Hints:
The longest helix has 46 residues, at 81-126. The protein has helices at residues 9-16, 29-42, 81-126, 133-150, 163-175, 185-188, 201-222, 225-255, 262-272, 288-293, 345-349, 358-376, 387-391, 414-429, 441-453, 459-467, 470-478, and strands at residues 20-25, 46-55, 61-70, 275-278, 303-306, 315-317, 339-342. Strands 1-2-3 form a three-stranded antiparallel sheet. It has three domains: 9-97, Beta-Lactamase, CATH 3.30.450; 127-188 and 357-492, Orthogonal Bundle (Hypothetical protein af1432), CATH 1.10.3210; 201-317, no CATH class. By secondary structure, the chain is mainly alpha-helical.
Amino acid sequence: MKTPDSLAAPVQALRADGPVEVDLSWDNPGHLTAYEPLFAALSAARVRLLSLPLKNRQDETIGTLTLSFVLPAKGEGEPLGAARVAFVRALSGTAALAIDNNLLLRARKELLDSFIQLVAGAIDAKSPYTGGHCQRVPELTRMLAQAACDATEGPYAGFAMTADEWEALHIAAWLHDCGKVTTPEYVVDKATKLETLYNRIHEIRTRFEVLKRDALIERLQQRLGVDGTALAQADSAGVLAALDADFAFVAGCNQGGEVLSAEHLARLHEIAARRWQRTLDDSLGLSFDEARRLPRPRPALPAAERLLADRPEHILARPAGDKIDDGNRWGFRMAQPEHLYHRGELHNLAVSRGTLTDEERYKINDHIVQTLKMLAELPFPRHLRAVPEIAGSHHERMDGKGYPRRLTGEQMSPQARMMAIADVFEALTADDRPYKPGKPLSEALTILSRMAREQHLDAELFELFLRSGACMAYARRFMPAELIDVENVGAYLS
């Protein structure tokens, strides 16, 4: 249909919801102003535009297709005709399909990316102490990968990444800790050795209070009257002071700030061996699961119990489905503790370094096992098949002593080795952990330098991390200014 040219042809086609034709003339000032490049490109003084809307599979308008036809300098020009318009309409169907496919692909990529970031955000929100980790590691990994691509000398001088490889690295970095959705918050957030769902130091404090009163009562019973009571209090002062000192020692052990020496461990066992009298039935008020773990029959009351105990009910068996066979299909080669959890008081207080028992440390490390299992089930397209390897290898080591598959540096992709550095550096410098403050930049780089020398991390990538400026760029962006105590990172180069 021929229509006025007061509106651009595509706009007219959208309004008419059908094909429209518009004649343009070089002599018309309005046409020349709007379409001068078109006249110049066609070397024509008169042009006819055919415009029609593009429809997707749902009959929704997603754009317009406009074709131009050169007209003779004078006269009306030959009409396009129904056949030619029908041909263009058929052509528009192919164009609409191509555009619709492109829009669908873009929408699905945006949906996938948003979903990935949603998962990472949920993991960070799950614990206030890991907040930001899943956002910072992808950023640092990207900076390190860009530094490798920009390198003009050294082992990464020829390193380059395609658009598909950048997409795989982006997805892997955001999903590198997705297995943490299976890790209990009370394990991730464990701030003292006796903490499970709550800090059991309060129970032990109560028992010390009982011992203090028992010591006083025993002596008061031996004496009568006011004078006798006063003498008993004086006599018990040394015992009470010793109990105060022993409790202070146990409380200090609970914090896990220092390595527990053999001498301190012996004192801990000596304190644990003290006995107190329990007069109440400890099987009352328990959950079904707690009662099931309690040994039967229960001892007669009053019962003498150790001050610090590792009792059978403190042990949670590992479910059969949680056990990893030697020949598992994922290639995991992690040493797996016998028990799922061991919540014994002495067992926890005797931890030599940090606050985690072997069982809890395995549970923390198990997040990477769950990450690999989860990602292995996703039907990644061909160009994203490296995502599980990149995301699941950031706890491996160059010397093959990492986990969960004990890969060597040669068996890891450069992207996985980049993420390993990013993960360690972020963890060292983060100031939102419950068990430690963020480390100064100098201390973090000292640790990373040692890890590179000991073949924990890729030494060549660590050098690139420093030389490229990625280290300082990240520090200025994410670290508190007072912790950036290094101006020249060259001192940490091997």
